[in-house]
Amino acid sequence: MASTASEVSQQVQSNNNRPIFKSVKALTESPELTSLPPSYTYTTNSDDEIVADPDEDDPIPIIDYSLLVTGTPDQRAMTIHDLGKACEEWGFFMLINHFVSKTIMEKMVDEVFAFFNLREEEKQEYAGKDVMDPVRYGTSSNVSMDKVLFWRDFLKIVVHPEFHSPDKPPGFRETSAEYCRRTWKVGKELLKGISESLGLEANYIEDTMNLDSGWQMIAANMYPPCPQPELAMGIPPHSDHGLLNLLLQNGVSGLQVLHNGKWINVGSTSNCQLVFVSDHLEVVSNGKYKSVLHRAVVSNKATRMSLAVVIAPSLDTVVEPAKEFLDNQRNPAAYVGMKHRDYMQLQKSNRLNGKSVLDRVKI
């Protein structure tokens, strides 16, 4: 492997003789970087992997949010049916007509880019180590645990029940507050439809998960161009904590979801939100709706940005299977109950690896 630039090496910290860079963005800005540093080399069983575009006979589900909230009774009933089918068969769907304006989505993307374009020392003011930090900037996933570093920088912000924001750039706080308010409303309405698709009362998930004091986080990810993308990984296969994850992209491809044993490329369309079933919804449904495995691959052509909004139970809520689904003999609980706060702490001690955290609460 070619050595990195001298100015980049000054940004390297040593951890058991393994280089750890403060950010991928800083690394890529060196003109001398021509190949991937060994610490970022990610190996996959490529012979066993199948990567495909969406199948015309099994397309990615599309849910029309407007029919869920303003449609006729028949339209709403059909949308709830389609929503349940998408959650059960894919754990993932595209959401259209969601009432989050294209203008606010574009402003949010611009503000995220503006944050990542700050000077490194300004961003390092928000560097954090604990998953509960209200504003946390970093790189890879969990540097202290990762055996291989991932080709991404991130910014994670807790925005509900208490709103937090970095002080820079100047417009970030106002834009993110508006964006998070709108996506929180969308998430709660989707959970009403999902509750009904499970045969529960519309407010079941909202009430039992204590969403009035629920936990909402935005996670912005930047994936700069990579000199050898075939050797690196932006984020490895994983599922998300929480109930739902609403994802916005900047139009650069890289997202893949696992469906029927194949990695499906998910493109980005204008004004579309991508919605993932997350771990806590799998627990509440006692496994009927599975959280979806997904990953981010990188390219050598353009910078990809994604912005995820996590909709999750309150931190002190014990998340467990809904009692309506349980029968001690035929349908016993498949997961143990655990406080959301404790589930978050499990993430801190785990490497990002498939459903490794969810597996810890399976019976």
User: What is the overall pLDDT average?
Assistant: 89
Report the order of strands and helices. HEEHEEHHEHHEEHHEEEEEEHEEEEH
- For the record, the CATH class is Mainly Beta
| Regions with little confidence, pLDDT below 50 for 5+ residues | 1-20
Strand order of the largest sheet: 4-5-13-10-15-8-7-6
SS elements, strand count: 17
What percent of residues are in strands? 15-25%
- Please name the CATH architecture: Sandwich
| Overall geometry | globular
How much helical structure, as a percent, in the residues? 25-40%
Rounded radius of gyration (Å): 20 Å
What is the number of helices? 10
How many separate domains make up the residues?
1
Features:
363 residues, single chain, alpha+beta, 17 strands
Protein described:
It comes from Glycine max (Soybean). Keywords: Iron, Metal-binding, Oxidoreductase, Vitamin C. This is Fe2OG dioxygenase domain-containing protein. This protein has 363 residues and is an alpha+beta fold. It has one domain: Jelly Rolls (Sandwich). It is built from 10 helices and 17 strands. Helix 4 crosses helix 7. The longest helix has 26 residues. The N and C termini lie far apart (45 Å). 40% of the residues are buried. The N terminus is likely disordered.
